[in-house]
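agent: user wants the structure for Gfo/Idh/MocA-like oxidoreductase N-terminal domain-containing protein from Carnegiea gigantea. delegating to structure tool.
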Amino acid sequence: MAESPTIRFGILGCADIARKVSRAINLSLNSTLHAIGSRSIDKARRYAEANGFHPSTKIYGSYDEVLDDPDVDAVYVPLPTSLHLHWATRAAEKKKHVLLEKPTALNVAELDAILGACDKNGVQFMDGTMWMHHPRTSKMAEFLADQQQFGHLKSIQTAFSFAADNDFLENDIRVKPDLDALGALGDAGWYCIRASLWAVDYELPKFVTALRNPVKNKAGVILSCGASLHWEDGKIATFYCSFLSNLTMDITAIGTKGTLHVNDFIIPYKENDASYRTVSEAWFTDMDLEWNKKPSEHIVNSDLPQEVLMVKEFSTLVDGIKRHGSPPDKKWPMITRKTQLIIDGVMASIDKGFEPVEVS
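agent: tool returned. relaying tokens verbatim.
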């Protein structure tokens, strides 16, 4: 029996999130962790040892060595956002498929350069938004598309926040203007914007408006903010993202006939199952004392965690290109670009005194 095709990954950098993704690479049956590189070979060795990497994993003292390894098919890039343009573009030029951590770029012009390099070199691009790959996400989408149960979408509210400690607020790369200048908007807001786009089947809003009084640190990096997105047919989305509030990962989507609630959409409460709640045509009992319906809870089981499913899907696309001559899937770059466009719009609205900014 022929062996299952395996995509060999290299990782650029020793970021904390790479611990989760390296585990996912090893758990996925169609991928393997082939190499990791850091700016220091000693750091790469310590990282590999601390995370139990297989002894066969190549250890490199530079990112270029990973990209120059002819056995590396694809790279996962969890570097600071300010480094994405250089290293993701360089990876594409080396014919390596690119799984890029979010936020994918500082602005859409940088992202377009990355996507252009991927397109020119025929390599697959995908960003690292893991919750998109959980089977719960497709089940929730089915409810939103059900006109009998949900009707037509009118509003979606999302929130992602966590109460960062003082060390994070002083030292994390996400609060440093030279490393991740988008701050909470790029880190936490990315998920909220993606959820809003997901709910409308990736139709771009007409304009976005940043909410007043975002919180910034002394260096001018956003620690907390919000915005509203407006579509020409009257749909509206609002979101809140913050490094300064209690851990919250909520989606509420409201239709003409039904409502969807999910309280752990980014990282499920449990790794292998996830729930969401729906209610349709709810009203009140006599004298408005109670609701006539309670939301129904739906549990979606998954044999593999969502990050493994992300790696598996990415590796399947890479295998199709590598072994069967398939073209790169254009869906994932499209979704990434629309997310980045709205990030840019929110930043522009803040800079323009919270005026509406058209998205195009």
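agent: one observation worth passing along. The mean pLDDT is 96.
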